[in-house]
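S.,

Sequence below, as promised.
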Amino acid sequence: NSRASQQLFGVDTAVQSFSRRVKDRENTRRMAAAAGGVAMRVLRGVRLTLGIVATLLITVAVSAVSMVLALLGLRRWANYGTPLWAWLTSHIAYPLVGIRYVVEDQVSATLDPRRPVLLLSNHPRSLEAVAQCDMLRQLFAPARMILGVMKRELMYTPLGIGLWAMGTVPIDRTAGQATIDRIAAWAKSLPDKAPAIILYPDGTRGSAARRQAMCEKLVKKTLEGGDDGNSSSNSSKKAALDEDVARIRRVCATTMPPMAGGCLTLLKALPGVQVVLVTSSNSHGLSSIPELVRNPAPTVRIHVKKVVTLPQETVALQRELMRLWDEEICPDLQVKERAQ
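The prediction came back faster than expected:
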């Protein structure tokens, strides 16, 4: 019995010793993984800082040159700052951060070079803007002026000042008809009669709360517009109204909904304009600097999808834009990871 007890005790001691060794090894692996994670975040932070500094220096330099050219009245030459900025940032800042990007183009070769191009896109995240700008450079420069419509608040930044010098028009998004008139006058005064203009009908990316507020506002407006007081008419329109409301809710669950105002103005101000739908997304759905530090650098995807024909009537255009966002834009934004 004594010998059996000693043997059992020895086995138990060996098992405990083995368990301790396994736990020690597991703890060591965890500590190494944690240290590695911290080191990777530090490295990403350093690379991101270098990328931001490089972007800022490039922006200031290119903006200064474009400003001088614009003040001298050389608007066409000043606009060459746009493709130059795009090339420099995509070839210097992006590699520093580790961001890759791909441009999928299905339509640019089919466009008439004598007619203007209006590109409608979802509002890109900050890390996607460079890739989108470089897409414009690859497809349209130097044959066309590359222009856009930007919010007035960007005029307080070096990038906004540079874009203004390069020909982009700043607008006050709260000014209503005054903003529409400004866009129309700007488009009609362009020295290039076949420019490539990019427009973001959704206006901004927007938080979930802001998207929800806009969703309820649009749903209410849609329902009120469809109620003409005629019960038989209401009955026949109910299915269409239900689909419009469902579409608004689907779009607002993913991004800010598109609005027709600026798009309608440019359709009327640019005779023979060709309208192209574009989506901007990235493989991990990242949007902020902290997310770039915590996660591996994503691949940005710019998809030049299709030429679309749009009506030049407000209600019909609003409905068509909402359909395009629902069926073409949002599916791209909802895919967070893609096989590259």
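Residues 66 and 78 are 5 Å apart (CA to CA).

Coffee later?
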